[in-house]
Amino acid sequence: MEKESNYYLFLAGVINESKYLENEESERAEADHHDDHEFKSWLSKFDTKFPSDHHDNLSKEDQHNLYIGRIMAVLEELGLIDKWPEYAGMSNLQEIVNNYQKLLVELVRRNHPAMFDSYKKWHDIY
Known about the structure:
80% helix, 5 helices, mainly alpha, 126 residues
């Protein structure tokens, strides 16, 4: 009889653990959904202020000027406007685009730390 009661206790434990894990997963999914909604709302506002879309239909010169202006906006937000020659002073468009993307990551890290991990995940940055 003792063996049977231990078996029943074991089964009861497994069932309770299973229910606990289901509830925990459900709560985590709801939290992720809430965080996801909050992040997407923040990202929409952030992307409006600091866009990351590319305009391939623009001439190289216009793209160059566009990204220099974008870099200046981020540097101003970071309080580093005097550093613009380091980030936008080169003639290679791809380097300027890369610098802009790096500055966006730095801006989020510094000014929006609560969104930093989600931002990196969203943009596949490791």
